[in-house]
Prior knowledge:
It is a single chain. The chain is 33% helix and 37% strand. By secondary structure, it is of the alpha+beta class. The longest helix has 25 residues, at 228-252.
Amino acid sequence: MSRSRALLRLTLCALLLWAALPLGTARAQLTTDLSEHVVAITTGFAGSSVLIFGTGAGPEDDIVIVVRGPEKDQVVLRKSNVAGIWMNTARITIENVPSFYALASTRPLHEIAGEAVLQRHRIGVDQIRDPKLRQKASENLAREWEDAFVRRKQAQGTYSESYYLIQRRSAALFRAEIPIPPNVPVGPYHVETYIFRDGRIVEAQSQPLFIQKVDLEAEVYDFAHTQAGIYGLLAVVMAALAGWLGHVIFKRD
Length: 253
């Protein structure tokens, strides 16, 4: 579906909602949609973006949109200088955290809701936490590991928070464009839209989003994961052949 068709569909949906409201009703029910529900990763994929459209927020309401990738266990390493050599001296696994996390909001989160509300719904990169980690380390040490993990993901471009990214098109219509980086993980995603009023969530809706490899990229990806041993052997053989061929060419010169 093209972006223009998605915008047209949301506009028509908003008009139908307003027409169906009885007299005296102040707000329509939250309705959201995406410009596309599938992001195809092909050879040469250099990143993309997904448009989220919605209607149903009042002029005084705050809007927060969260895009969450598949949850996975993540290994975090700590490097230390040992006798002048930097090496990995500690490692820990943070369990069940999003492999991708993007947030857009109308204002900074601390101005929208309190810590308890944000923590309960895991809204904001500061709320990326692993309760099991606190069974292995103290609260302060666990928070250090989690902060280091978030910083690494932010440096990679797979974790982001963008305040004021949401644009209001009218009294109730809004939209936001979420960037999809080239190194985005594949899998099923959830696009969550929250309407906040006086620090509380009054409306919420979730939309599915799928990011997947297609064509040759998909075949290589599937082969590497289903036949990991053979894939590794082929990679070694191809590297050896490339090295031998380079040696022959330069030897002739």
